[in-house]
Amino acid sequence: MNSKNILGDIKSKSIKEAKEEISSILDKLENNNTDLSVSIDDYQRLIQLNNHIDSLFKNKMKEISKIGKHNV
What we know:
Elements (H helix, E strand, L loop, with lengths): L7 H4 L3 H16 L5 H35 L2
Helix pairs in contact: 2-3
């Protein structure tokens, strides 16, 4: 998923905030009493949050690589 496809409210989250929401969604999905239609929406949001975190980590890796190249 391209970062352009990630919802704005997710894009504005820090890694910590996204991680906390992921944890909350996982707790909710593990509950056997959850409505399936709600679960699908939660799962899709979980995927977007995960992609957002992945994007943030990739950006940090690029920054670290640039710093490493300048120090060599």
